[in-house]
Amino acid sequence: MKGLWLPFFLVGLTAWAVPPGMPICERPHVVAPAEEQPFPEEVQRALDALVRAELTREPHAGLAVGVLRGAQRWVGAYGQRDVAHGLPATPRTTWRMASITKTFTAVAVLQLVEQGRIELDADIRTLVPAWPEKRWPVTVRQLLGHLGGVTNYGRFGPSHDSGPVDTAGALSLVAGYELEAEPGTRFIYSTWAYNLLGAAIETVSGQRYGEYLQEHVFGPAGMEHAALDDRRTRDEHHATGYRIRDGQRVASKVIDVSGRFAGGGTRATIEDLLGFGGALLDYRLLSRTSSGWMQTPMSTRDGRLTDYGMGFATWPLRGHYVVAHSGAQPETSTLLLLLPGEDVAIALASNVEGQAASLKRIAYGIIELLLEDTGPRLSAHRQGPVDAVVNEALGRVFGYGLAYHQWATHGPGTLPGTGALPEAFEQVTRLLDRAAIERAPDTARERILAAHEPREDWLFVRVGAHMARTLEEALGPERLRSYSARGPLAFFNDYLAVCESRQCPEPFRFNEALRADLRRLTGNNIEPSRH
């Protein structure tokens, strides 16, 4: 494999006591195909322990976890896919994918874009004539990024999931509603928008949506058991769904998801989902260029980032560039998380609803375990509200800069922005000026929170990425990777030390006032790194 404000669709969970008699977890099933390697035994034990610790926090039934890092692979299955019959979860268990289906749809659309059969900026009505004319045209690109103004579930009662429907029936569920906003002006997450894309896939390919996925997405990714989630064709390996009510595990509500076919209507095993993640990292489903489009966050017309690309949410996490999608439906909670700049894929599926926060904790714990065991974090010594604002800005320059550098250097990304770097460094210096922050702290913080966006010409991204590139050239890639664990103060201190030894032009060294702030926040003088 090649060495990278949307809500994560994650909600908080109530901490329930574990009901009596509930199994915590079974021994994990670990599978390592011949062409791949298992993680070292100590890493496998640590992964297993991490998952088990999470499962003690609250009720669960079945859970599957898969991890890829380069050629290394680990899959664990825990608990029961069917509690009433005592059937264990295994790697062969199939789970509802819910909204992860959107990533399959986005891949299919971009494949057809690569072939010249779909134009990203085409009006969807040229591909789906059954979609009635609205006040504004809606493009394929806008639908992929949830910028088309199409409504979501909130306007619907429960009846739309009561029975099987075909593509025309799924489109009719939403066809009568007007757009909630002018396309391009507002992010509105919408499963129905993805149903329109599914219909476009059928028009252009001449295949039913499920058939297209089998031939062009599931097959090439080795997703042997992935399919549309038709309750009538499920086999004995499918997980029975549960939800937690008043601290007790009860059966999920029975719904039909054919009306969500391209936005939430598939099922797969954990190995299927992990295989899909690996195929994306390997560029087996899309070219490097198309993968970069998919993973690039889109923005509204006024330059505000949505933190969602084409079928995936994106955000920086301690200098990692995260590409992810979660899923939530009756019977299931799912998560697929990729780090394209670091060749990592993490897949999770549970047959208990409302487990988004739990899956997120597991995924973040895996990232820390695999990529951040590199020394203690340098903590800030803050002495008031101005220090807090300055420290937050340093963290954002570091987080966005390192993440985008890794994604653009080792993944399919491209660094954004057009402005000159010396001026960008000067702008950051002015933003972090203590006197200006003291005069108008709310205004200063608002500007800092927007400084990574297109409306500010990606200021923090460009400055932070230049700093990361400088550190990688001077200290090497291994040292650069260490900053995810060591934190923004270590990142800034080492950068300034490198600049001192290299005699960087003054704008690239910020100014003495900011350097003094760094010394105070760090609690000691900055010393040059050895390199």
UniProtKB/TrEMBL annotation:
The keyword Membrane applies. It comes from the Bacteria. The keyword Membrane applies. InterPro entries: AmpC-like, Beta-lactam-related, Beta-lactam/transpept-like. GO terms for cellular component: membrane. Keywords: Membrane. Residues 47-366 form the Beta-lactamase-related domain. This is Beta-lactamase. It comes from Archangium gephyra.
